[in-house]
Amino acid sequence: MGGRLTRVFRTFNVENRARREISKEKPTPAPRHRTSRLDQLSDHPEIREEIYRKDDRLLTLLKDVYVESRDPPVQVKDGGGEHLPCKLQEKRLTKLGNLGHLDVKKVSKGRISIVEAVTLLNNHKLHPQIWTAEKIAAEYSLEVTEVNALLEFFIPFTVQEFPKETKKAI
Description:
This protein is mainly alpha-helical. It has helices at 2-11, 14-23, 37-43, 45-52, 56-64, 114-126, 133-140, 144-153, 164-169, and strands at residues 91-93, 106-108. 48% of the residues lie in helices and 4% in strands. It has a two-stranded antiparallel sheet. The protein is flat and about 110 Å long. It starts with a helix and ends with a helix. The model has no long low-confidence stretch (mean pLDDT 79). It comes from Ceyx cyanopectus (Indigo-banded kingfisher). InterPro entries: NDUFAF4 (IPR009622).
């Protein structure tokens, strides 16, 4: 519906509008510079002679120039080492959780797996005197500032089961 409406407005009075545009006075082009390169050559034959004359002194100097070009030796890449070099990072074995074969086996130092994060957060929540930030940092090869931020901003969920009598009250 919208296409038909716009087409009506677009084609309304097209011929009159076209005639009006055609009959408008055309703008005058900008004036050209009176001298151009071709005009100078035709007006001054001595310039033309100077251009086409051979200079023997310059030709002898040009013949003395010798350019020797050498490409650097091409190094053939060995197809065996297709892997890009990567940083060698120290890895540590993780404290495995309940998932066994699904758990991550090795983690870079300074990082922890999800299972380890949940475990250390839960341990700190249950026994904060034993599992201090310094002990967690030493146990999992982390920095103390990062462990403090982790313990401050992340709190594990607690599951609470309500007895059947109190469900009705809620």
